[in-house]
Amino acid sequence: MITLALATAATVSAAPAGLLAHRQLRRRRAAAELRIDTPNGIAESGFVRIGGIDQWIEIRGEDLANPVLLELHGGPGVTNTYFANRTRAWERHFTIVRWDMRGTGKTFGHGEQGAVTFDQLLTDAVEVTRYVHERLSTDKVVLLANSFGSVFGLRLARKHPELYSAYVGTDQNIAGSERDDIAFHAVVRRLRSGGKRSAAAKLERIGPDPTTWTAADWGLHAKLVASVDPFIAAMIKKMLLPAMWFSPQHRLRDLKTGADGMKFSERIGVESVQFDAWRDGTRFELPFFIFQGEHDSLTPVARARRYFDDVQAPHKEFALITDATHFASFWQPAQFLELLLTKVRPLVTDAEHRAEA
């Protein structure tokens, strides 16, 4: 689904001159919107040596005194830097750290990727976190994980509560042996009722157990879910494609590299489905939040809620992002910011004040 969107955006290099000129104009305006000139602000990006390779890290915020959010992006292989303009308002209240993991974005375009495994991404994430602690002179950061990033974000938060002030999952992906046959068969029925019998048969052939799927099966499933979900279709058309196409930080070649990186990263997606969130554990020693798009058919609310109900944490909250599907935080950035400000920020700032006292 997203690979196709990226490839579509990247191949418009042969578009009419007028379209490319319009793109350049919009990108210049977007770059101006991203400018940070506050006295205590930060806007830096570049390669940092992480896990033996150079990895791209971007840090942005209007006030370094604000809490720090470290994002774990989705995909695998989809950088969150595409969405910088949509989340510009977040930077007034938080310092946002965006990291292109191995196989993703500018990290992928820079050269050799080394080992791309679930365990290696976990190791990298710990190293990135410690780099951020040192760079921003902070003891803890909020871990904000979306989609694929939320799979290993759970283990990261559970294993290293000393590094994080809270865990926030969105598009929360709950991998594990507990299959979601109901959602799978609902997609099959919607395909049939829409006259897509051949597509329904293809989906039935791969079966409802994702632990047996190949990378191609995962791609087919995502594509077919998107094809019968009007919310996802609208999100791609109105948010995802424009965010990529008009991003001031990404040239056309960067969009192509992004699509290539997603293809490269399919291997880790297949490996990550073997991770079982319930078996790994449901006890967390830090505040735990899930903010899920109410219409998300890729990472359904019901499954995220079942896991959340089993979680034991010093504080936990679950909230729905209304009128949102997958990529909920970027589709409804103002609503997501309100959740961060009312539920997460007071908790982490109070903890910081107690630590200082």
UniProtKB/TrEMBL annotation:
| Gene Ontology CC terms | cytoplasm
Molecular functions (GO terms): aminopeptidase activity
Domain annotation AB hydrolase-1: ranges? 67-332
Task: Give the matching InterPro entries.
Answer: AB_hydrolase_1 (IPR000073), AB_hydrolase_fold (IPR029058), Peptidase_S33 (IPR002410), Pro_iminopeptidase (IPR005944)
Keywords of the record: Aminopeptidase, Cytoplasm, Hydrolase, Protease
- Subcellular location, record wording: Cytoplasm
GO BP terms? proteolysis
Q: Which reaction does it catalyse?
A: Release of N-terminal proline from a peptide
What are the EC numbers?
A: 3.4.11.5
The source's domain of life comes to Bacteria
What's a Pfam family in this record? Abhydrolase_1
Q: Member of which family? A: Belongs to the peptidase S33 family.
- What name is this protein filed under? prolyl aminopeptidase
